[in-house]
Write a structure and sequence with these properties.
The complex is a heterodimer. Chain A is built from 12 helices and no strands. By secondary structure, chain A is an all-alpha fold. In chain A, helix 2 packs across helix 10, helix 3 packs antiparallel against helix 4 and helix 6 packs antiparallel against helix 10. The two termini of chain A are 17 Å apart. The longest helix of chain B has 9 residues. Chain B contains 5 helices and 9 strands. In chain B, strand 4 and strand 5 form a beta hairpin. Chain B has a single domain, classed as Alpha-Beta Plaits (2-Layer Sandwich), CATH 3.30.70. By secondary structure, chain B is of the alpha+beta class. The chains are: A mainly alpha, B alpha+beta. The complex binds iron/sulfur cluster (SF4) (3 copies). One iron/sulfur cluster (SF4) binds next to loops of chain B.
Chain lengths: 355, 192
């Protein structure tokens, strides 16, 4: 294959392997979702229904938020080259990652203490958890801390990518806005699916307020879906029309290239338009399906964005890595496969598998 | 104050990759890591006026590096003489800096044991100068065409200052504001 033919066939060339894997995409999604749930439950409890005790209605949503944040953090640590020393992330003040780690820690402990303070399980296995009920004394403080940190996490997930100006598709103020909108919308869906669920035991007044909260979140989700759809289309289409070469290449891939089916059918169709239609249709059960679709759409958005890590190639960079990938690897694997022991024989085989 | 920089004369570079081999050997790099790839090799012109352009690269040791402030552990750092390096004992392998570098000059090796990955990059042969003060980096010493010139750009009498002073030079992706400290003298066939 000559270079021209290669370039024609690989307009979407990845000159080097992707640096961040699925763990980071999932972490950004789960962080946004968990942060959004904590933020919204705090806002609803403290400002929308200040006279009603919403604690029991928000037990399951907060429990889910804690679980998704914890799993997101696990993904993040798993992706590290040296997971056992993850605590070093808290050191440098200039690093956005440090602030993310701090916010995630505050949100996790805030929601954990809030849950422990308000949960008195009756089962013999979990009964011992009641000893932590003393945290309940500062319930408002824990939820407030978790809610504010949750807001920070929603914004941070987008800001983290947008500060990396080497990747021009990420480096835009539209990305944090898009991620925050999506985080809020997935959080609405998450809360609607779990409102008043176990382990909460809601009384009549709480259940009535929860019903009202559900209606409110339902309306908010419709507005957010419209907003997200607009931001997403404006961002991608303006990149296509007026972006630099890298932005155009990625936008082209989203709109009519290899990721177009994920973008149009997955994200726009199933993740935004279908939930919108289901939400306004009024069909029984449609809203539950809409929530599930919103969650899937939010997850796809993070994956598509993390996969759009194209960098402006240096002059001749594509050719260099093309040759390394094909010619040099063929050479290296020839010697490995023919049994000639090279000092790093197993390594050659490893690289061979990489591509 | 000392400020290290390098000037690469593309007119002299013949694309032999000796600098890459020297760097790899001296730094004992794993097979999937290269600090100074010689990019390009693109043919230009019409016969008989044809030419091949090469672009030897390495970390640009930017004055305003993207890779240092983003590092959460402080492993990625810059010395007073401008050398940007990673302390492998502190790095936790989060790869934020790898994603932050607009030149693609950092990477982790996949050929080390799991839990033992850290980011590697060109150090301007800092370790060598610590052992032999005043020594040139290995890639500079190895270049038989003297295409790479290394030195203190703040000293107006240094070879590099004089070379940059009398040549027409350019730098890569200057528009990003990184203030890269690798200067290039354009090739005669010039893709620029
Ligand atoms: S070239 Fe990349 S790794 Fe080197 S100093 Fe600049 S930003 Fe950092
Ligand atoms: S990979 Fe290492 S050097 Fe790079 S930002 Fe993370 S901790 Fe810092
Ligand atoms: S200066 Fe040293 S570490 Fe950097 S590319 Fe040259 S030989 Fe390698």
């Amino acid at each position: 294959m000559d270079m021209k033919q290669y370039q024609a066939e690989n307009a979407e060339i990845q000159y080097k392997h992707r640096y961040w894997g699925w763990q980071i995409a999932l972490y950004l999604f789960l962080g946004g979702l968990g942060g959004g749930i904590l933020f919204l439950t705090w806002v609803l409890s403290a400002f929308v229904f200040p006279g009603v005790d919403m604690t029991q209605a928000f037990m399951l949503p907060n429990f889910i938020a804690l679980l998704v944040i914890a799993f997101g953090l696990f993904c993040l640590v798993e992706e590290l080259g040296q997971p056992p020393v993850f605590y070093r992330a808290y050191v440098t003040a200039t690093s956005i990652i440090k602030w993310g780690a701090v916010l995630l820690t505050i949100a996790s402990f805030g929601s954990l203490f809030w849950l422990l303070g308000n949960w008195s399980p009756e089962s013999p296995v979990l009964g011992f958890l009641s000893v932590f009920n003393f945290f309940g004394g500062a319930s408002g403080l824990w939820l407030g801390a978790a809610g504010i940190a949750g807001f920070g996490i929603m914004v941070y997930t987008g800001v983290m990518l947008s500060t990396l100006k080497a990747h021009s598709f990420w480096s835009t103020p539209a990305l944090p806005i898009l991620f925050t909108t999506s985080a809020l919308s997935t959080a609405c869906a998450g809360i609607m699916l779990s409102l008043c669920g176990w382990p909460g035991v809601a009384d009549m007044a709480t259940a009535a307020a929860a019903h009202e909260a559900h209606e409110l979140l339902h309306t908010l989700d419709i507005i957010l879906a419209f907003a997200e759809l607009s931001i997403l289309l404006i961002m991608v289409l303006s990149f296509l029309g007026a972006g630099n070469r890298t932005q155009q290449r990625v936008a082209k891939r989203w709109i009519k290239g290899s990721t177009a089916p994920i973008f149009w059918i997955g994200m726009i169709g199933c993740g935004l338009v279908a939930p919108l239609l289901l939400n306004v249709s009024g069909i029984p059960g449609a809203s539950t399906l809409a929530c599930v679709l919103v969650l899937c759409g939010g997850c796809l958005l993070r994956f598509l964005c993390v996969w759009s890590d194209d960098r402006q190639p240096l002059e001749g960079e594509n050719r260099y890595y093309f040759r390394q990938k094909h010619a040099d690897m063929a050479f290296a694997s020839y010697y490995t496969k023919s049994g000639k022991e090279l000092e790093r024989g197993e390594n050659f085989a490893y690289i061979d598998n990489l591509y | 104050m000392t400020r290290y920089a390098m000037c690469i004369d593309l007119h002299r570079c013949v694309g032999c990759h000796s600098c890459s081999v020297a760097c790899r050997t001296w730094n004992d790099l794993p097979m999937d890591i290269i600090y100074n790839p010689v990019l390009g090799g693109v043919c230009e012109g019409t016969w008989p006026n044809v030419h091949r352009n090469y672009l030897p690269t390495l970390c640009m040791h930017c004055k305003n590096p993207e890779c240092v402030p983003c590092c959460p552990t402080g492993a990625s750092q810059q010395d007073e003489d401008g050398v940007v390096w990673v302390d492998s004992k502190i790095c936790m392998g989060c790869k934020v800096c790898v994603n932050a570098c607009p030149y693609g000059m950092r990477d982790t090796s996949h050929m080390v044991r799991r839990f033992d990955e850290f980011v590697r990059k060109c150090t301007f042969c800092k370790e060598r100068r610590e052992m032999e003060p005043g020594a040139d980096p290995y890639c500079v010493q190895t270049c038989h065409q003297n295409a790479r010139v290394f030195g203190d750009i703040d000293d107006p009498d240094s070879a590099i200052s004089r070379l940059i002073g009398r040549s027409d030079t350019f730098r890569l992706l200057e528009e990003l504001g990184t203030d890269p400290q690798i200067y290039y003298i354009p090739d005669m066939g010039g893709t620029r």
